[in-house]
Amino acid sequence: MTYTPQDALALTPIAYTRSCFRDKFGVPRQPGLTRFARADLVIEAPFDREDAFRGLETASHLWLTFQFHEAVREDWRPVVRPPRLGGNRKMGVFASRSPFRPNSLGLSVVRNEGLCRKGNRLVLQISDHDLIEGTPILDIKPYLPFSDSLPEATLGWADTPPTERLPVAFLDDATAQLQRLPEDQYPDLRALIEDVVSYDPRPSFRRGREEDRIYGAHLYDLNVRFRFVHDPSGERVEVLTVC
User: Model confidence over 185-224: pLDDT tens digits?
Assistant: First the structure.
């Protein structure tokens, strides 16, 4: 059999993601922005052999290479508008972390929560992630602190983590609904909701605007409905329902 360069491009997913984030709206724009996001990476055959993960339990964090499967496009554009720049400035796609890329590949550091069996499936549990439901995982590697952490690295337009967060208020209906949900099925759900909405998941052109629109984010199998409220003291988020 003759090997060709095209063979190297035939990537087979190692796993598929079962995520608390069911669609793109509301997903943190980078991993690590919420400590309460959890997911299962369901390992596919023939990779579902525990030997292939021997020693991974010593790694606190992992590199995941994945596909932005909902951002795959036949055509690509050389420039994008990063949300961190307010959506008003254009940057080259290779100078950004936009999901709309020629090969639709993503790279994230996540927290390793351990390997286990769920039924007859081998599952790698993770947290602190930014993956939506169904994300194909193409590779898993341990994060190496001595080489992967470079405190002196700079980018210029996104050197520091986002710190601006809106205050969040849970209205009575939302609070009552949260109290009725089982904690083991929805771990740290209130904290996850607060992280998701406080960073303002709206498109950049809608931020800071006074509007009556009600938004929804799908977390687990729930629809979280919320709105942005302006008053003399500033802007806040009100969580209306969780059902």
Answer: 999 999 999 999 999 898 777 777 777 899 999 999 999 9
Pair (82, 113) in one structural domain: yes
What percent of the chain stands above pLDDT 90?
A: 66
- Structural domain includes residue 52: yes
CATH number at residue 214: 3.30.2310
pLDDT at 32 over 90: no
C-alpha angle 214/37/172, rounded to 5°?
40
Asked if 94 and 79 touch (Cβ cutoff 8 Å), the reply is no
Q: pTM (2 decimals)?
A: 0.89
State how far the Cα of 97 lies from the Cα of 94, in Å rounded to an integer: 7
Q: Give me 232's structure tokens.
A: 């003399």
Q: How far apart are CA 238 and CA 223, in angstroms?
A: 14
CB 92, CB 61: distance < 8 Å: no
- Three-state secondary structure call for residue 147: helix
For CA atoms 209, 85, 134, 62, the dihedral sign is negative
Report pLDDT for 88: 75
pLDDT in tens, 143-173: 999 999 988 988 877 767 776 899 999 999 9
Q: How many structural domains is the chain composed of?
A: 2
Range of the domain at 214: 168-242
The span from the CA of 226 to the CA of 200, in Å, is 11
Determine the 3-state secondary structure of 77 from DSSP: coil
CATH number, domain of 71, equals 2.40.30.70
Q: Which residues of 208-237 are buried (b: 16+ CB within 10 A; e: fewer)?
A: eeeeeeebebbbbebebbbbbbeeeeeebb
